[in-house]
Design brief:
The complex is a heterodimer of chains A (about 325) and B (about 550). Chain A is built from 13 helices and 2 strands, in the order ααααββααααααααα. With about 325 residues, chain A is mainly alpha-helical. In chain A, strands 1-2 form a two-stranded antiparallel ribbon. Chain B has about 550 residues and is mostly helical. In chain B, strand 6, helix 23 and strand 7 form a beta-alpha-beta unit. Chain B is globular. Classes of the chains: A mainly alpha (about 325), B mainly alpha (about 550). Bound molecules: protoporphyrin IX containing FE (HEM) and iron/sulfur cluster (2 copies). The site of one iron/sulfur cluster has 15 residues of chain B, from helix 6, helix 9 and helix 10.
Chain lengths: ~325, ~550
């Protein structure tokens, strides 16, 4: 149900834009107004989310320790999986964000012949997730060339690398195809693997379909239904310079692609995609396991009354004395 | 107190399917299966510590006698906790349902109930959060994964949040470190706002408040129990060890789990410790009030947890000791490592811990002033301060179970292994995916070690037992060592069920066996006063 629903929403967006542009001529709406709104929602929304998390207190220092603690000098500590210093924490966070360290641990449990549990290595999720995210990042950066003249050297270099050192046009980018493969695998997990299907919500399918649609429309535009790249650049430059213009003759496929991207941006702060910001704020990862060295202060700590020793002794004094246990008051 | 349920036979229980049903989880109402949940708490226990809505109620009955405004209370409770706990707030928002945690939970692996996948356990509460606290949930409802908080949903939360042992295994594998333990802790706090704890947790909490320990041992009983152990030690070694209680001016206050003062095999751990302290001439004392490092308050609410930990530093202060040595206990070390100082510190009346025997400064404990006993003993061994006759443990083939808390809320892996290897000749590790940071829970942690939920415990312990079975069948392992009192209470039952004949012990029992003491008689008995094979005792 969730699958169809999410798929239908993405299709509806595509049709809406198609009708809007080629039927009603709403080019300005889709290429200027909506992009500004979407970007605004994205920025305000993400800032709000992150600030809101940041306003929540961190009463206790509760890192999940994934290796040997720092204790006696002759025992080698695992400084990255169980950091006890800020440097260690930074290292741990870099590993999480850049390499998905925790996901790399993934195993798959299987019950063999009804009696033996085996934990096989299961790195495909890690690989697909990493491929997807890096492709997304590279593609995003590559797009910057629409927004700046002249195209900065690092971006040209990235394009060069991504196209496997190919010279001449049109460049065939590896990431374009990798991202589709990765997305299809991630989608397959949610459709073909019973456990993952069971936990999936419509809001898990939707971003996959959406990004898939973005990638496919992008590829179509690039290699098949080619659009006027100069015109696209004019739109982009117009947007960033706040002097929007809309040249004629840009194919409707561009408007579809662009509207899908805007949808992604606008949807971002309300969805699970906020993990992009949240991962940095996760207290089980971004704190050092050094509570016994450095005291952590709970900002909302309040006084609590507990049983005093006096009370305790008053209840048990006779028994203590009889047993020869020292007491405060004879 | 608790009626002991009878679980199905192991052959039955191990028929587990991990394939979820076709019907979605939101449309599947909770079903209370006997043997899978605990008795609700009695009113008197709640009253003992001043907790709200004390009443006698039963989880198996339809009417839980909830207050009229229960829903308001829960929603208000969620709201407060979103602001008070960044963990909770962030974890409610960022799960991508990648499923990496799904098959990491021992309850899922041992039972196959999809709501025991950590991700769904979280969704049970997250769906409520979405409904009342997020824009998309308010507008889109079910399509956004949101659902109304109803009595059935509340009961479902209760059922599944007392089927989580707060072991943090899921958190290790989650790409964002989403820790269901943290969510369960909050979930249980919410349930406790309505008086919905379980008897097996609240009983020990009430006991602990009054006597300082879960078992309700009064001071003279503690002494009597230790006197018994001292007699046994004399029988075994010919040496009369001495100890003191509530002695002012001692250098060190020793605090272990009360489970080690009562019942087997925990008492053998205490015996080993008494022998060790005697042998090195340690200037230490017990406190009859701070006689429990464990804290079932932690399975109730942060406030109760803090309340029950007052005794730790206050007793150290009253007795004027220099530092605290903590015994072999799992969740005690979650708290001593991550909470004690924050709750009741800074303990500036104590001194930075230094081993009086080796002069080693325990730099890693210089703030909280609490040292783990395996850190202490490993240091002694490293400095050659102890003499061992390893062959006294030769009849044992040992494997080591890392407890959840000491593993994933501390990371104390090498210290106990170093000790075991120093006092035993035969040590074998369980498979790599089941030890150290990836260790599996005993299945009975976080206050779920009751009798009436025995099937749950045997299921939850299945992955652990399965790994033990592997080393038993492969290497002939016959002893499961650990550094946790709940393990020592829970694992014997688990082993009897899955791996009959497997014994359970604490690390300092092994130390006590091997420790060569000045002036001891020739040992023919182990700490269990059973004949030592090949040592003049009969085999
Ligand atoms: C700091 C930046 C980010 C980090 C560390 C990060 C990390 C992760 C990880 C570890 C996963 C789980 C693996 C998986 O399910 O594939 C994931 C999932 C996902 N991420 Fe990110 N991510 C980041 C930014 C983004 C951004 C900018 C997007 C924007 C489109 C995004 C979209 C997704 C999607 C759609 C999934 C779910 C894939 C699925 O359904 O299986 N992520 N992310
Ligand atoms: S591993 Fe983390 S992000 Fe993935 S489903 Fe589990 S809790 Fe959610
Ligand atoms: S904390 Fe442990 S018991 Fe609880 S859901 Fe996670 S793995 Fe399961």
């Amino acid at each position: 149900m969730g699958i169809l629903f999410s798929f239908a929403v993405v299709v509806a967006i595509v049709l809406l834009v198609f009708a809007g542009v080629s039927g009603a001529g709403l080019n300005y709406l889709f290429a200027v107004i909506i992009p500004y709104i979407a970007l605004l929602i994205f920025i305000v929304g993400m800032v709000y989310r992150v600030v809101n998390w940041g306003r929540s207190a961190v009463p206790f220092k509760v890192p999940t320790t994934g290796g040997q603690q720092t204790s006696l000098p002759w025992i080698a500590a695992n400084k990255l999986d169980n950091p006890s210093t800020s440097y260690g924490v930074i290292g741990r966070m870099l590993l999480e964000v850049l390499l998905f360290r925790s996901l790399f641990r993934n195993t798959k449990a299987e019950l063999h012949s009804g009696s033996r549990l085996i934990y096989g290595s299961e790195k495909l999720l890690w690989l697909a997730a990493l491929a997807f995210h890096y492709c997304f990042l590279v593609i995003l950066i590559r797009h910057l060339r629409f927004f700046v003249v002249p195209v900065p050297a690092p971006i040209e270099f990235l394009e060069f690398m991504d196209s496997f050192f190919q010279v001449g046009a049109p460049l065939v980018y590896i990431t374009n195809f990798l991202i589709i493969i990765a997305l299809l695998y991630l989608l397959y997990r949610r459709i073909g693997m019973p456990q993952i299907k069971y936990i999936s919500l419509p809001s898990d399918y939707f971003p996959l379909f959406l990004i898939l649609a973005i990638a496919i429309s992008g590829i179509l535009m690039r290699y098949f239904d080619k659009v006027d790249v100069v015109g696209v650049k004019q739109i982009a430059m117009g947007l960033v310079s706040f002097r929007p213009t809309i040249p004629d003759g840009i194919g409707v496929i561009f408007y579809i692609h662009f509207a899908l991207v805007c949808t992604l941006f606008a949807y971002f702060p309300f969805s699970k995609l906020v993990h992009m910001g949240g991962v940095f704020l996760s207290p089980t990862r971004n704190l050092a396991n050094n509570n016994r060295m450095i005291r952590h202060v709970n900002p909302w700590d309040y006084p609590i009354k507990s049983r005093s020793y006096e009370d305790y002794e008053n209840e048990f004094r006779d028994k203590m004395k009889k047993a020869g246990i020292p007491v405060e008051k004879e | 107190m608790a009626t002991k349920g009878k679980p199905p036979k192991p052959e039955e229980l191990s028929k587990i399917s991990y394939t979820p049903p076709s019907k979605g989880w939101m449309d599947t109402p909770v079903e209370f299966k006997p043997g899978m949940y605990c008795h609700g708490t009695r009113a008197k226990y709640l009253e003992a510590v001043g907790m709200p809505f004390p009443r006698d109620w039963s989880a198996s009955e339809a009417d839980w006698k909830l207050p009229d405004n229960w829903k308001e209370i829960v929603l208000q409770g969620i709201k407060e906790r979103l602001q008070k706990f960044r963990t909770f707030h962030v974890f409610m928002d960022i799960c991508v349902r990648c499923g990496a945690c799904a098959d990491k939970c021992h309850f899922f692996l041992g039972g196959g109930d999809p709501k025991n996948m950590p991700v769904l356990r979280a969704e049970l509460l997250r769906s409520v959060y979405r409904k009342y606290f997020t824009t998309s949930g308010k507008i889109l409802g079910k399509a956004a994964g949101a659902r109304e908080l109803t009595e059935d949903v509340l009961k479902e939360l209760w059922y599944y949040y007392f089927q989580c042992t707060e072991c943090r295994r899921c958190s290790l594998f989650c790409p964002y470190g989403i820790d269901q333990a943290e969510i369960t802790i909050i979930g249980r706090e919410l349930l406790n706002l309505l008086g919905l704890n379980i008897d097996w947790i609240m009983g020990p909490v009430a006991n602990s408040y009054r006597t300082g320990n879960h078992l309700g041992l009064e001071p003279h009983t503690i002494k009597a129990n230790i006197d018994f152990m001292i007699d046994d030690i004399e029988t075994i070694t010919g040496i009369k060890v001495d100890t003191t209680y509530n002695r002012k001016g001692a250098e060190i206050l020793f605090i272990g789990p009360s489970g080690d003062l009562f019942g087997v095999p925990g008492n053998y751990v205490t015996m080993g410790e008494l022998m060790l302290f005697h042998e090195i001439g340690l200037d230490y004392t017990w406190s009859t009030m701070a006689c429990e490092g464990g804290n079932f308050g932690f399975f109730t609410s942060m406030e109760v947890a803090k309340k029950l930990y007052y005794k730790i530093y206050s007793e150290a202060k009253r007795l004027g000791v220099k530092w605290i040595l903590g015994g072999e206990c799992g969740h005690q070390w979650r708290l001593m490592n991550q909470f004690a100082d924050t709750w009741w510190g800074p303990p500036d009346f104590l001194e930075e811990p230094v081993s009086p025997i080796t002069g080693t400064k325990f730099e890693n404990a210089k703030g909280s002033k609490i040292v783990h006993i395996t850190e202490f003993t490993a240091d002694l061994i490293k400095h050659g301060k102890l003499k061992f006759d390893k062959s006294r443990n030769d009849h044992l083939k040992i494997t080591f179970h890392d407890s959840c808390n000491t593993a994933r809320a501390m990371g104390i892996f090498e210290e106990p292994r170093y000790i075991i290897n120093s006092v035993c000749n035969h040590f074998y590790e369980m498979p790599e995916s089941t030890i150290r940071e990836k260790t599996f829970c005993c299945g009975s942690g976080s206050g779920l070690n009751a009798g009436e939920n025995i099937e749950l415990r045997m299921r939850g312990g299945f992955p652990r037992a399965n790994a033990v079975k592997y080393v038993r069948d492969t290497f002939g392992v016959n002893m499961l060592a650990n550094i946790c009192a709940i393990d020592r209470a829970a694992l014997p039952t688990l082993m009897d069920y899955w791996n009959p004949g497997m014994d359970v012990c604490g690390v300092h029992e092994l130390v006590g066996n091997a420790l060569v003491m000045k002036g001891e008689i020739e040992r023919t008995l182990d700490l269990r006063t059973e004949p030592l094979p090949g040592k003049g005792g009969t085999e």
